[in-house]
Amino acid sequence: MRETPPVEDLGSGIWSIPVPIPDNPLGYTLIYALESPSGPVLVDAGWEHEESWRALCSGLEHMGSSIADVRGVVITHFHPDHSGLAGRVRAASGAWIAMHQADIDLLGRIDDLRGGGQRELEVSQLRLAGASAEEVDLWAQLDPRMEPPQPPDRPLADGELVDLPGRRLRVVWTPGHSPGHICLYLEDDGRLFTGDHLLPGITPHIGLFPFDDEHDPLSTFLESLGGLSDIGATQALPAHEHRFTAIGPRAAEIIAHHEEKLDLLAEALGSTPSTLWELAAALPWRRPWSDMHALARRMAASETAAHLRTLERRRRAIRTTGSEGVLHWTAPSTAPRSTAEATPAANR
């Protein structure tokens, strides 16, 4: 568990408020409060938990404000450690909640699956991925997922300025970790709030789910990473770990990490069809595949699927459908030998 840092005044009317994520190895989410004449605007809101709520309220009081003064909450993406408290902030202050339209649309689809539909989708997808009957049964017995966050009332689009009086906080659409993930560039200060898109020491989960969906999240992630250097920001303020300045080099490092993983996965493909489950099990992970919990295996399979989709787009993998609809992949007979020969990433 990471040690929670203190509330910090970062200058130029920006405050860092660490909000705990109880029982999670990430430890905390860094919430940023930006001062304005009409009250602070928050970048993210933190996990829905009493301990998290107390930390957020205390942090605002430390900067001389209160939860009732909050003008708005900009959510970098819909995940619960970023959006969980947004509804509670709105109830306490009347604040607006803003999120990119693509994540708002995704929340609508999640809401449509409530009442058992989500679990049915998970089970059907595991069967398509080639998971064993025992694995599918284990997943079917898991508790339902957390409730989705409160719906935002302000959709955001790429390039739009956030409602922050006296400042220029611009939306930079950076899909990949979620379809509507955004970074936020404070143009009058030169700092970039990167959410989970760009972190100094870890990489965000890039998954494809459902496994038979046709979008390409990894390619859009790599493309949006590559464009961060062009913004000209002087410092990155991420949602986890710590602030850093080497934005371009760190983005290049993460791109190289995924290119290496793509090459490793391409080498695992052969002329004999392999299921997603078999390919995910063959890759190296922080924990051995046999020791992974059911949720960790599903996330690993989702990440493997995202890399397979990019390999398909680059003509380095071929997908087929076997018996009972199970998906398989093989290596093409004339696959490009390097990423330089691959087709360009799909436009976002």
Protein model, in words:
With 348 residues, the chain is α/β, with parallel strands linked by helices. It has helices at 50-62, 80-83, 86-93, 101-112, 117-129, 133-140, 217-226, 247-268, 276-282, 294-313; strands at residues 8-11, 14-20, 28-34, 41-43, 72-74, 96-100, 154-156, 169-173, 182-186, 191-195, 235-238, 274-275, 318-321, 327-330. The strands form 3 sheets. It has a 7-stranded mixed beta sheet with strand order 1-2-3-4-5-6-7. Strands 8-9-10-11 form a 4-stranded mixed beta sheet, with no helix packed on it. A 3-stranded antiparallel beta sheet has the order 12-14-13. Helix 1 links the parallel strand 4 (41-43) and strand 5 (72-74). The protein starts with 7 loop residues before the first strand and ends in an 18-residue tail after the last strand. Residues 331-341 have a biased composition (Polar residues). Residues 28-240 form the Metallo-beta-lactamase domain. Residues 328-348 are annotated as: Disordered.
